[in-house]
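Worked example 3. Consider a protein that binds coenzyme a persulfide.
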Amino acid sequence: MDFTLSEEQLMIQQAAKDFAQNELLPEVIERDDAQKFPAEQVKSMGELGFLGMMVDEKYGGSGLDTLSYVLVMEELSKVDASASVVVSVNNSLVCWGLETFGSENQKQKYLTRLASGEIIGAFCLSEPEAGSDATSQKTTAIDKGDHYVINGTKNWITNGGTAEVYLVIAQTDVEKGHKGINALIVEKGMEGFEIGPKENKLGIRGSDTHSLLFNDVKVPKENRIGEDGFGFKFAMKTLAGGRIGIAAQALGIATGAYELAKKYSKERKAFGTEIANHQAIAFKLADMHTKIQAARHLVYQAACDKDNGNDYTLSGAMAKLYASEVAMETAVEAVQIHGGNGFVKDYHVERMMRDAKITQIYEGTSEIQKIVISRSILKD
Ligand code: COS
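Given these inputs, the predicted complex is written out as structure tokens:
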């Protein structure tokens, strides 16, 4: 296994690092406080090609590999996980899903604008009673010949208020179970489609999370992704890649928190010396560094599996499970190393600790990742 980065990958990594330092860092605390969506920054990320990184250039994307995407996610997440989740959802769940399974017409109509960052998208699977248990969809999409009629509610939808295009998973034929589920493209402004209240969240407070309400929303049949009944597989296949993006986000949060803790420990003095000289602190840093490096290998391995055409369901789930645990643990320890200052917003690590938690929950909780991993290792 060789994770030596190419010149192009190093350049992209540097571009993301510069962007994070110059454009995300300055008001990240204020945005978190005010729950302000980073609208200008998202526009700039579109211009940099970060919103359709793996999409073919002919559809307005950057035509890059998954490893480059992971590098960008990592750099952005070191500074602002609220901004990076927009990148993750748009790239992995929306653009990848449309490019891989959408019709040519859907790609021309939606993907080109999503990949260039002109608009952003949302992925709508979760419901009040169907988060982990994703086959239990209560939202219905009834077949009316040339169109579907959607009714129901979706919950915790990232980019919920800011997206223009929504990929909605809904049950068409309840008798067929998961084989009766469809994925439909819904546009903002379609009659009967309402954006619910914004969630007041513990972390990633700059990201725009809403419930969505569908009341007799008519969606043309040409907006169905794939064959009739493909919706659940669409969601599962898309989420398998999405988990690599979230794993990279977790890796970025962990690295960001570790770097701040390391710097602080070389400046802050206690008992007559920099605290890094106390073994209690040095050993914490040693553990953090080791675990982050292990997480990085898992995340890069999953990205390489995807790029090399290997199955990445298992490696993506392992990467997300481990990297999100490392993110949480590292952020908690970074607060501890900062002591009283760690509890204060100006030092960033308390935000990272709050942001880290969601990486163990969304796009499949840690418990769901263990289901995916255990089924995969036990099947043969
Ligand atoms: N790729 C392709 N197909 C997949 C798949 C994957 N990664 N995972 C499951 N499937 C297919 C199965 O092969 C099965 O199809 P067949 O009946 O044709 O064989 C079908 O999907 C149903 O799978 P399964 O029987 O395993 O469904 P379960 O209800 O047991 O649930 C889990 C499987 C738990 C893995 C799934 O519900 C899941 O991932 N839940 C979490 C969803 C999630 O991430 N929610 C967060 C919301 S998005 S922020």
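Take a moment to read the result before moving on. Residues 125-126, 131-132, 134-135, 178, 232-233, 236-237, 239-240, 313, 362-364, 368, 371-372 surround coenzyme a persulfide (CB under 6 Å). The chain is about 50% helix and 15% strand.
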